[in-house]
């Protein structure tokens, strides 16, 4: 479930993520961290500014960033 404060949704496909860490390093708001499986995981989604840097740098196309839609 997405926080009502989140302006963006960051989705990481764990099957595609190889844990290279590029997205974790480039995120200006430190939204992503490694989980226990050494895969990227959004942990501070409310801080995401929608810059798409994580999505653009991912060599495996494992990350998508979308604008959050309010619940209807």
Automatic annotation (TrEMBL):
One of its GO terms (molecular function) is iron-sulfur cluster binding. InterPro entries: 4Fe4S_Fe-S-bd, 4Fe4S_Fe_S_CS. The keyword Iron applies. The keyword Iron-sulfur applies. Signal peptide: none annotated. It comes from the Bacteria. Residues 8-37, 39-68 form the 4Fe-4S ferredoxin-type domain. Transmembrane segments: none annotated. Keywords: Iron, Iron-sulfur, Metal-binding. Gene3D superfamilies: 3.30.70.20, 3.30.70.3270. This is Putative ferredoxin-1. It comes from Acetomicrobium hydrogeniformans ATCC BAA-1850. The lineage of its organism: Bacteria, Thermotogati, Synergistota, Synergistia, Synergistales.
């Amino acid at each position: 479930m997405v926080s009502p404060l989140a302006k963006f949704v960051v989705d990481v496909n764990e099957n595609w993520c190889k844990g290279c860490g590029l997205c974790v390093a480039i995120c200006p708001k430190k939204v992503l961290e490694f989980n226990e499986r050494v895969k990227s995981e959004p942990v501070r989604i409310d801080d995401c500014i929608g810059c798409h840097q994580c999505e653009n740098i991912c060599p495996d196309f494992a990350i998508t960033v979308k604008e959050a839609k309010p619940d209807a």
